[in-house]
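Dear colleague,

Following up on yesterday's call, I've attached the two folding results inline so they're easy to grep. Please treat them as preliminary; we haven't cross-checked anything against experimental data yet. The first protein's sequence and structure tokens come first.
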Amino acid sequence: MSVEKIYCIYCGATVEKGATFCPNCGAALTDAKPAPSATEPVSQPVSYQQSSYEQPSVTVVTTPPPPAKTDNSLGTVSMVTGILGLLCMPGILGIVAIITGHIALSRGKNPMAIAGLVLGYISVAGVILYLVLVITLGLWM
């Protein structure tokens, strides 16, 4: 006794007659066709091929950031305190000129900071030289 076979209309798999769902794809078999006889050609399942989609090309334009504004305020402070350190208060203002000059140079090249550093170092060197001369020659009294 042979069991009559039918084919799933969705995937083409052979299914026993009387089955309600295809064991291969799970589709309902209410419209299933009986198996073809030996003389009938078997139709192959239809395979669908998804068309390829080409992504549109995107051109990214990057603009460089605007140049950073340089802040010369610490360089100016260094130069002014270096000048005042030479003229008025050589020790204290010279040290202030050196400190602010180094901070200004760490933020970028600044000619005023370089001038303030030079004046600050000259001011501090002058104070040290003055103290050495006064102490060694005993001119303080």
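Below is the second protein, in the same order (sequence, then structure):
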Amino acid sequence: MLKKFAKVLGLLSVSALFAGSVFATDMAAQKEEMINSLNLTPDQKTKVVEIMNESHTKREEILNKHANQTGAEKIKAMAPELKKLHKETQDKFSKVLDEEQMIKLEQMQDEMFHAARDQAQKNNQVK
């Protein structure tokens, strides 16, 4: 249960970062680094940016939808929606990227997830 909570917390943290928090510039830099690291063709880059922007917009909609909720209630309400969005986004990426690029993308996403989770845990300890 604790692992599941940590993963959801990480998803929420990543979502909050993408949604325009104080770390937005870091996320923009990470997004650009991710795009550059995948060695995309011009066509792939266009499609990947479209997928990322669409995912970002949907993530913001989910966060706004649950803005009045707090704590465990918010996590419980958002988790299935964020999980579904993540799967849809990964499916779209898999249609654009080759196998090697998908592996690299998943590794980078995992690193971002862990960094966001660690930051969220650090922020909770400071408060």
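For the second protein, one point worth flagging: The chain has a mean pLDDT of 80.

Best wishes,
A.L.
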